[in-house]
Design the sequence.
């Protein structure tokens, strides 16, 4: 069963169309009054009935002028004055700019330094402009477990059979994507050995203190070690009875707990969240 990732933006009524030559051919971009920022795309006007909603553009750029190009945001503030944000260079690939919402009507404009910008996708506030269409991020490889049929921009999220994963079970090892595209691992045989010795490790997951009850190993000189996901030793202590590990300051993730005596070594996975 394939795993479908949620697309960044899904607008089924907006079709993909061929790339436009450049901003210069876009009727949605008007001529501005500034010679340095002559190309203006108005996202909203103070008198268009807006209530200060978020304004955003997404542009998938395929070509830029040799000298580069930039954009900046010009917007009105609560008292009606203009605020001009610092310029931001445009880059090849996906460009996203979000102007956060406010609680008053306003004007927001995106100003560009050059119109010789070629692109494949151009969306402002979920609406296609300049002949563009929505950016839909996802896995575009049909052989992947999480192939997204509606994605038009690869986000490097593809998962394939055999890829490492985390099935969320602290008692399994070597988790990976299976033939059915589900994530699962091999049961840690040390779990049965721990249970046979009445050794208890709890809570799991842990966020403050991790208790290691040695069970039948009480009275036996035992070394308890804790390794993080990179196999770095983060805790070590010898004990002959139940002990508590303060994990409050530890990074979240999967850890390996090792309990060893002269006769045996037992290991178990624990999660710190």
Sequence:
């Amino acid at each position: 069963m394939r795993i479908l990732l949620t697309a960044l933006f899904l607008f089924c009524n907006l079709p993909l169309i061929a790339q436009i030559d450049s901003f210069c051919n876009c009727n949605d971009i008007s001529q501005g009054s500034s010679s340095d920022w002559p190309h203006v795309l108005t996202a909203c006007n103070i008198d268009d009935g807006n209530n200060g909603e978020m304004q955003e553009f997404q542009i998938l750029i395929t070509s830029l002028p040799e000298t580069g190009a930039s954009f900046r945001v010009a917007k009105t503030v609560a008292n009606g004055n203009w605020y001009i944000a610092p310029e931001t260079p445009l880059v090849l690939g996906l460009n996203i700019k979000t102007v956060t919402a406010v609680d008053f009507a306003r004007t927001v404009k995106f100003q560009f330094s050059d119109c010789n910008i070629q692109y494949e996708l151009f969306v402002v506030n979920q609406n296609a402009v300049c002949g563009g269409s929505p950016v839909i991020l996802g896995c575009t490889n049909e052989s992947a477990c999480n192939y997204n049929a509606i994605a038009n921009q690869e986000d490097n999220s593809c998962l394939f059979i055999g890829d490492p994963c985390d099935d969320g079970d602290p008692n399994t090892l070597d988790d990976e994507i299976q033939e059915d595209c589900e994530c699962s691992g091999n049961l840690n045989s040390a779990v049965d050995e721990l249970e046979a010795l009445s050794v208890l490790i709890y809570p799991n997951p842990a966020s403050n203190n991790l208790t290691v009850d040695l069970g039948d190993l009480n009275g036996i000189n035992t070394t308890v070690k804790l390794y993080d996901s990179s196999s770095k030793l983060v805790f070590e202590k010898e004990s002959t009875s139940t002990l508590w590990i303060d994990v409050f300051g530890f990074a979240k993730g999967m850890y390996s707990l090792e309990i060893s005596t002269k006769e045996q070594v037992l290991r178990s996975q624990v999660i710190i969240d």
Summary: The CA atoms of residues 49 and 245 lie 59 Å apart. The chain is about 5% helix and 40% strand.
